[in-house]
Each structure stands twice: as structure tokens, then as C-alpha cells.
Structure to design on (225 residues):
């Protein structure tokens, strides 16, 4: 049982490039979410999804897009990367019956130059 | 969601109990208290949660005051591996699952 898998672990982008951070879970969880964590700060919610085909914005959604075509996958797209998006990104999932017991991935460290 | 207040840092000797406080004076009746921790550069890990009653699991105990305005997470026998940032979060329970807001938490340092 792999849990929540994030790829890549590290990524360096140039300003203006686009890319997709991948997140997959094999626990059949309905709820999935993306957080970013900047140095010395807590985690901030970017986007979340309560099931396939349903997404919603979190606290800091600007510059990011998401979609949820399957239960397993919840990719995060950076349309035009900016240095302010340099951060560590965490994906999390949860079964609806245990709403807030989140299972986190190991993170993606992103640097935008 | 109710706001939480935690001390920025705490120290604990290895083998002793670590007691991490959290103030949530504006908590409402249907809001749960959740605790997570984050060991350096890893994803956060769920520890425990509760509504009114004290809770215990294999990792920790959660003590919630009778008026529910504060709580304490207890690690009964802290080890060096418990050094981490501990987050106290308050969120509505039931079917309104979704967002969890992580503040800056408490940095717990367990020393030999």
C-alpha cells in the first residue's frame, strides 16, 4: 500500500515555464488537497477536491489549476511559474468518513528561478 | 473556524512527558481539536483528535478542558524522534470535511 505518492521530489523551473505536480493515492479516498509550505510558515491550502469532478479553491489558489478526473489522481498545474511559487508542496488525502485525518505525501520541493 | 494559539517553541528531556498546550477560546460546539506533527522536511502526520472527552491512542493523549477553550497534547515518554513541529487545529466535524488550516505550530525539541 503506497499511500499518497507525489512526483517529482525536486524540480527547478525558470520564470514563465509551466509544469504539473503529480499526486496519486491508492486508498480510495474521496478528499484530496494541495498545500504549500514556505520557510518558517505553516501549511497553506491551495486547492482541494471532495470527489472526482469536484474541486474548490483554498486560501492561496492564484497561479494554480487543478482537476480531478479520477478518484486516485489530483494533479496541480502551474500555468506560468513565478519566483513567489518557490515552495515545498504537499498533497494530502482523506476518506470522507474520517474527514480531517489527512494522509500526506512526502512533498515536492520546487524552485523557480 | 476557531483560531488557535500555541507557544512557538518548547523543550523536553528525553524520557519525560512532553505537554504541548493549545488555546482555542473561540471554539464552538461542533468544532473538533486535531493535532498533527511535522518532522523536518516530511509531510505532516496525524496524531489524535477529540471533541469533548479526553482521548488516548498509541501515540499520545489529548486533554480538553471542560469549557473546551484549551487543550493539551501529551507525549508520555518523549524520544529524540519526537522532535518536530506540532500543529493544533480546530475544525468543524461531521460531513463538512475539507479545509484544515495549519498555523505556525510549536517547535518541540527533545534533548538527551
Amino acid at each position: 500500500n503506497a499511500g499518497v505518492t507525489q512526483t517529482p521530489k525536486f524540480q527547478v523551473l525558470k520564470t514563465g515555464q509551466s509544469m504539473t505536480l503529480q499526486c496519486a493515492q491508492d486508498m480510495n479516498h474521496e478528499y484530496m488537497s494541495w498545500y504549500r509550505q514556505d520557510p518558517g510558515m505553516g501549511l497553506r491550502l491551495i486547492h482541494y477536491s471532495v470527489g472526482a469532478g469536484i474541486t474548490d479553491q483554498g486560501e492561496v489558489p492564484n497561479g494554480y489549476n487543478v482537476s480531478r478526473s479520477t478518484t486516485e489522481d489530483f494533479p496541480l498545474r502551474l500555468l506560468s511559474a513565478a519566483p513567489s511559487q518557490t515552495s515545498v508542496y504537499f498533497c494530502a488525502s482523506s476518506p470522507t468518513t474520517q474527514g480531517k485525518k489527512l494522509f500526506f505525501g512526502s512533498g515536492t520541493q520546487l524552485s523557480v528561478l | 473556524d476557531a483560531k488557535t494559539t500555541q507557544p512557538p517553541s518548547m523543550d523536553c528531556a528525553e524520557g519525560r512527558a512532553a505537554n504541548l498546550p493549545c488555546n482555542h477560546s473561540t471554539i464552538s460546539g461542533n468544532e473538533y481539536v486535531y493535532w498533527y506533527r511535522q518532522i523536518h522536511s516530511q509531510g505532516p502526520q496525524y496524531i489524535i483528535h477529540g471533541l469533548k472527552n479526553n482521548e488516548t491512542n498509541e501515540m499520545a493523549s489529548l486533554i480538553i478542558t471542560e469549557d473546551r477553550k484549551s487543550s493539551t497534547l501529551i507525549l508520555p515518554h518523549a524520544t529524540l524522534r519526537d522532535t518536530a513541529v506540532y500543529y493544533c487545529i480546530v475544525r468543524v466535524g461531521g460531513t463538512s470535511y475539507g479545509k484544515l488550516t495549519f498555523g505556525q505550530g510549536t517547535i518541540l525539541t527533545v534533548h538527551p
User: Anything to note?
Assistant: The longest strand of chain A covers residues 43-51. The mean pLDDT of chain A is 92. The CA atoms of residues 88 and 109 of chain A lie 4 Å apart. Chain A is about 0% helix and 50% strand.
